[in-house]
Design a protein that fits this description.
By secondary structure, the protein is α+β, with helices and mostly antiparallel strands.
Length: 281
Amino acid sequence: MVRRALAGTVALLVAGTLVTGCGGDASDQAGPGTATSAPATSEPSAAEPTPAGPGADESTGPTTAPPTRPAPSSPAAPTPSPTPQRLRLGATGPEVTALQERLTELGYWNGGADGSFGSLTQQAVYALQKSAGIGRDGIVGPNTEKALDQGARPKAKSRSGYVVEIDLKRQVLMLVDDGRISQIFNTSTGNNENYEQDGNTYRAVTPPGKFTVSRDIDGWRDAPLGMLWRPKYFNGGIAVHGAHSVPPYPASHGCARLTVAAMNWLWTNDKLPIGTRIWVY
């Protein structure tokens, strides 16, 4: 499905992770936590025939030495097979296009197939790896290829209606219609660590439960805990919002982060209107 060898040179770009806060004012936070004070050998040439030495009996005709056998040549060292190059951030070519098309086929949102392994493709690979329960490195190696071939997808919990599900264990956000998953996104929710705000200590959690989108902001919101792009609030100050950093692990103050591009797609296609049911578990 996805060939392991790249047609071109694969460039590995290492991007630093930005820490972006989320959430609203302390007054609209949902449930602050308890205060806590890794040469082939050349073949030798065959020996030349040995001429007759001095004193040879010429009356019997010219004498020549018997032909000598060539010395046995050493077997050439086997040429090692090239190490398959893995698809990763910065890769380009038809293999990347095939990867993107397969991700889309499985429902992993990646912005479309353009043959360039950018950040959105990496996000989709994160989501695939999370769903398959394998290492979350954003690189398409043997295990990830296997997951692609096997069609690894998460399972929805809801069975009726349109529901946005946020799986805290797998760290994926899914759009579900009558129990069928249509789109899967990498997300990053609360990191469960303590943080300070206005002299108080809170725990960065994304509470489980069933909620609805109650309000939204079409643009950037400069919130007390950081910048939120086009947030859709569903539990007090907790929202689904766009961010510049969406790592493959919990890193927020409680919100569910998506990429800015993914959030734009959700807005453009009206996938999170006011009243949308959200199930966090």
